[in-house]
Amino acid sequence: MTRHTAPHSEPAPRWCSCAVPDDASEPTTSGLSRRGLLVGASAASVLAAAGWPGAAQAAPRDGSVTITIMGTSDLHANAVNWDYYKDATYSDSAGNAIGLARVSSVVKQIRADRGREHTLLFDAGDTIQGSPLGFYYALVDPVTESGAVHPIAAQMNAIGYDAVALGNHEFNYGLEFLDYWISQMECPVLAANAVHAGTKVPAYTPYTITSMKVKGRPPIRVGVLGLTNPGVVIWDKANVSGKIEVQDLVEAAARWVPVMRDAGADVVVVSAHSGDSGLSSYGGDLPVENAAALVAEQVPGIDAILFGHAHKDIPQRLVTNAATGREVILSEPKNWGQRLSIFDLELEFVRGKWSVAKHSATTVNTNTVVDDAELVAVVRAQHEAVVTYVNTPVAVSTEALSAAEACWKDTAILDYVNAVQTSTVAAAVAGTPEAALPIVSIAAPFNRGATFPAGEVTIRDVAGLYIYDNTLMASILTGAQIKDYLEYSAKYFVKVAPDAPVAPATWTNNLNTPDYNYDQFSGLDYGVDISQEIGSRIVGLSYNGAPVTAGQQFLVAVNNYRQSGGGGFPHIATAPVVYNAQVAIREAIISYASAAGTIDPADFHVENWRLVRNGTPVF
């Protein structure tokens, strides 16, 4: 196979120029040439185990050729089948497995079954952030300082990815870190709609075209267009503001698909870090967040879309293009390497050109194989360094603390996050005019399974509580704005009759609101009356025993995701920023715990909010 990667003019884009050399090889029965055949069990057995009826496909028609596109998404720096928070092999109630080493085993089987030259492997983004492994090599022992190869780059190179699209989380550690990771990748890293601020010039490679040899016929030229998520400009505002803008996915695809066709692409695949629903988690000021189906419907010339971002398992979705009437096939593989999407595209050579005549797609569960030992070996030393790190003790807890009820009760373990945030902000603003303002703090229940055991608390316990790589900020809000904010947060609960049985686990996640979007304040006293309608639930809002007035000002400790507009909470994104030292909240918790040596709820736990029904506390 050979690859053509689109060149562009100044300003200089951030991309790698990659090529796969042609290799002479023997012809196969399907007419495509074979390169680097990898030995493994039959892929048909893997597909059959996954319950896919296409596992025993009929042979292609005479003169036709079938190619296979494989795809991952939302790997989130999961290299091996390991849960760093539990310090054990990953397990869940569904029996899933995670990690690129597991993905590699399926990829090898598919390549062995179909022939290496019959297949391509793409990724739809969110690859380098999301696990302690990703955090460690970005912030604890940064590869940008050590010169080491990033573990995910090392594994993707070893597997032999053909192209990778950027997800929004690729921007979490800043553009310099992202550039370094891209420089280590041996395939193109794509994002056609991420442009230099104030221009339409892509900051990264927009697309790449790979030629697949066919005996006695012209090569099949497969193009893949990479698209990232518009939410980058909100969620990573501090990293991209004034540097990177992200265009609408439909607009960018409409611009680049004709360019790819003109460049000779017979098949056009889009790798999009975008869900398929047409909805957004933010307001209407930005292009649609989950636009994969819109791209399929509105942009002519696309054959298949690999998409991600929503962490769903969608084996196949078919969307009819409004302009051409042609069917576009889409697939989303479940996150963390739990699934591999597989597209089979049957091509016919008609009137001197290749075109897709038939298509099918599925996802394969990676729990049907074992970890690829070669891929485990690639990252073994780095993995072991992270295991050692996360098991480092930081403090002793006087009692066991749990987040199991943090979604409906004021818990000590979440109060600990707020205590750290409040203390950090107070120290930072000491001696400034803002030091006179009362400091309150916001935290959300990220992980109901988080615990601090009685006794020794380790870094992995802290990481399990605060699972995101957020940084700490502080902004000024008024009493009226905080009331609006809390009302918005309270939509998380369904409306519950005053005399209904107490069943709090059934009251949460109203309107599909995730746990991480139920924000709780410390430093203020209030009730959340879930017997009332959304917008009229916050009762008894007070500070130091006195009702909060509309114009009263507060200094609010908040994470950067929320302050940038993530979740669509009112007022916070436009509030004046007083503190932004880029301190990672997880690291602040570790430092605070290490300095104190002891975690004692008596020092910080105050039940300042509660669920009520018609004024009566639920608990």
Automatic annotation (TrEMBL):
Keywords of this entry: Hydrolase, Metal-binding, Multifunctional enzyme, Nucleotide-binding, Signal
Domain Calcineurin-like phosphoesterase: 68-312
Domain of life of the native organism: Bacteria
Location of the 5'-Nucleotidase C-terminal domain: 396-573
Keyword Hydrolase belongs to the record: yes
Major localization class: other
Listed InterPro entries: 5'-Nucleotdase_C, 5'-Nucleotdase_C_sf, 5'-Nucleotdase_CS, 5_nucleotidase/apyrase, Calcineurin-like_PHP, CpdB_N, Metallo-depent_PP-like, TAT_signal
Family, per entry: Belongs to the 5'-nucleotidase family.
PANTHER family per UniProt: 2',3'-CYCLIC-NUCLEOTIDE 2'-PHOSPHODIESTERASE_3'-NUCLEOTIDASE, 5'-NUCLEOTIDASE-RELATED
Protein name: Bifunctional metallophosphatase/5'-nucleotidase
Species, as recorded: Agromyces aurantiacus
Organismal lineage: Bacteria, Bacillati, Actinomycetota, Actinomycetes, Micrococcales
